[in-house]
Amino acid sequence: MTLKKEHRIGRHATLLLLMEETHELEEITKQLNWKSCLGKVGSMDSQKVVAAIEVAAKQQGIIKENLYRESHALYHAIMEALHGITRGQMQLGSVMRTVGLRFAVVRGNPYEEEVEGEWLAVAIYGTIGAPVRGLEHETLGLGINHI
């Protein structure tokens, strides 16, 4: 089981999210036969952040809505990424924090052997802070899970 250097799915999701011009990376995604989507969400409710990412992944065909294992894998990748942006507290509005986030979801096989199966990476980047404009700071989270 060897992870291909050029197939690092978490790195790919993070770069896709952070790049202003995504044409080149989207082309690489197609060449790898991976799927990806981008989106935005702003909320004081972590449930709304999770829901926005899940809905985007389902609508863009990243996961199949009727397969529990795919939804379950996505949920765990989202939770891991949220832990990163909230510093492990998983709370937003209840502790008077708000977020303005962009997210990327990437699905593919990062290993040399096809039998390793597919993985999901969720990258989240944006701002978090008190619900007062101008008092927030940057944050970044990444979650990776096998399907």
Automatic annotation (TrEMBL):
Entry-linked CDD domains: HutP
GO MF annotation terms: mRNA binding
GO biological process entries: L-histidine metabolic process; positive regulation of gene expression
SUPFAM superfamilies per the UniProt record, alphabetical: Hut operon positive regulatory protein HutP
Assigned keywords, A-Z: Activator, Histidine metabolism, RNA-binding, Transcription, Transcription regulation
Self-association state and partner proteins as the record states: Homohexamer.
Function: Antiterminator that binds to cis-acting regulatory sequences on the mRNA in the presence of histidine, thereby suppressing transcription termination and activating the hut operon for histidine utilization.
Protein family membership: Belongs to the HutP family.
NCBIfam families: PRK03065.1
Protein name: Hut operon positive regulatory protein
Species whose genome carries this gene: Robertmurraya kyonggiensis
Highest classification ranks of the organism: Bacteria, Bacillati, Bacillota, Bacilli, Bacillales
